[in-house]
Amino acid sequence: MTASDADGAAVLGPKLGAGREADVYARGDAAVLKLYRPGFGGHRAEATALRSLNGIAPRLLDVVDHDGRTGLVLERFDGPDMLTLLQRQPWRLIGLAGALATTHRAIHRVAAPAELPDLRPVLAGRIHDASLPPHLRSFAMRALDRLPEGDRLCHGDYHPGNVLLAAGRTAVIDWAAAARGAPEADHARTLLLLRWAEPLPGTPLLARARIAAGRSLLARRYTRRYRRGAPPLRQVDSWLLVHVAARLSEGIAVERSMLTGMLDRALRRATR
User: Which of 125, 105, 109 is nearest to 117 (CA)?
Assistant: First the structure.
């Protein structure tokens, strides 16, 4: 159910942040209000995922309607995100990579709620929407068709910027892309982001240099720790190829040539 914020704009505290889909405001001392913009429905998946988690993410306290916008009232977590820590304290890379992997594995041990969307059709829709030559779109769709369904909770956008750390606790935020699927699929999306995602606009040149220098090591250490003690991972390369195609639907112009080239090379290898 969605409650109504009877006090209107007066309930909003200081604005703490903004993303593509939502703005975040302080809500007293112990909570925040994540207020989704009209036309975005990620609050449904986010609320469903948060209700299934215990200790891995901020607690969902309420779902409200504020001036026609849906908002999630969440436990406030005052701590830096892992990406910020990596940029400020690069000597902590190995330990942070381990924490990134350990937390991701904990997510994948959670059975996904049935209300969450199946990841495979979600990816198919993104590939359909991507600006791709027909032969590369067909190649990616054939690869997706051969991949299995799954019943694990998948974050959908798991990377260091969405992992907060403070007082010995780790909390994962931004669950709008949560889905039900195979752990390997979610793992492959993270590998894509760690290795090749363009830093956010406005990232200082020094921070960009640090990201470029450390991203390969971070990806390797994350992968090594994720695989430790886990069941064998299957078809990660195929999932990665699918995510490369789906990523193109996000319209990040500076990544387009690189991602299209990755697909083209994979197709040539497959047809030799």
Answer: 125
Alpha carbon distance 10, 7 (integer Å): 6
> Is the four-CA dihedral 174, 176, 177, 182 of positive or negative sign?
positive
pLDDT higher than threshold 60 for residue 136: yes
Q: How far is CA 221 from CA 8, 27, 157, 226, in A?
A: 47, 37, 19, 8
CATH number reported for the structural domain that contains residue 122 in this entry: 3.90.1200.10
DSSP state letter for 198: P
- DSSP 8-state code for residue 79: S
Name the strand (E) or helix (H) holding 24. strand 22-27
pLDDT digits (tens, 9 = 90+) for 57-98: 999 999 999 989 999 999 999 899 999 999 889 999 999 999
Q: Which residue, 75, 92, 114, sits at the end of a domain?
A: 75
Helix (H) / strand (E) containing 1: none
- In Å, how far from its chain's centre is CA 4? 29
Does one domain contain both 136 and 236? yes
d(CA 45, CA 134): 31
Identity at 34, one-letter amino acid code: K
Q: Are residues 12 and 137 in the same domain?
A: no
Q: Which tokens hold the place of 232?
A: 């064998």
The domain that holds 19 is classified in CATH as 3.30.200.20
pLDDT at 166 over 90: no
How sure is the predictor about 9, in pLDDT bands with cuts at 50, 70 and 90? very low
pLDDT at position 87 is 86
